[in-house]
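Entry type: protein chain
Record version: 2
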Amino acid sequence: MKQIVAYGEIMMRLNPNEYKRLDQTSNLEMSFTGTGLNVLAGLARHNYSTKLLSILPNNRVGEVAKASIRHHNIQDTSIKLNGNHIGIYLIELGYEYRPSEVTYLNRSQSAFNTTILSEEEIAEALNDACLLHLCGIALSTSKTSLDNVLRLVEYATQKDIPICFDFNYRPSLNQDMDEQELLNSYKKVLEKSTIVVGSLRDVNRFTAEADLKEALDTFTNMFEIKKFIGTIKSENDQEKWMQGYVYADNKLTMSERYPIRVFDRIGTGDAFVSAYLSKYLRSIEDSESIEYATCAAHLAFTTAGDTPVLDEAFIEKYRREKPDVIR
């Protein structure tokens, strides 16, 4: 069976419960997460076959993280064990107008960011791939992960494997990397990508237009991108809203606006991407795909943790009926 493959870092998430700050608790909840893992977990809940290509420490923590990946019905045969460290992030969840606060620990020394993939490991991971998901964060966290991404792009292009690239421009994650060098690496990935996930701010790294449609027209023509998807957040009368969009064939298609009620805001973008891909891979039309994806992200704001936990039946029933209780 053809698989969706993602290359991405697996991190340990630690957070206090009940929206407390670190200095208010002595207990932390642990989970394992990451953009690629989250997107694949969402797709697995839509009955797609998925596989994660990553590196974990060769110790008890790595074993537990691998078990967590299997729990999400993601194939872990391309998870390499090496080194002693995993990247950690501590999140103090915000509430209402208080923002969430993230602190990274040990990320530059993680197994993912210090281990080069062999050509054989890349070929094996992509052997049955129908789509490769990559995140721009891996271009920023280390020279090693950047090199791995570029070699994956080269191999996928040679084998005609479509690439979905989540822009996620984060130069702050690596202060030692020259920004122009980082942008040049982005160009190399964008030139080979079929679907790009991002925002107007991301696009404006390469274009000057303030209007979303005009900027996307320039950007998608520049890199010959088939589809560009993203969300727009807005605020009106103290209400927060989100609206999804897809740009393809010189046409901008928008979803309805959905209100935002935040229980846990981390990972909502990954729910959006996985839901969109679940429709795209079945050749569902853009208007339906982006409406479904935006609804999935809207619901993801109300669930705990980074990883999507709602399946297609739940999301579709909510879209149709907006029930208070599902029986």
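Comment: The mean pLDDT is 95.
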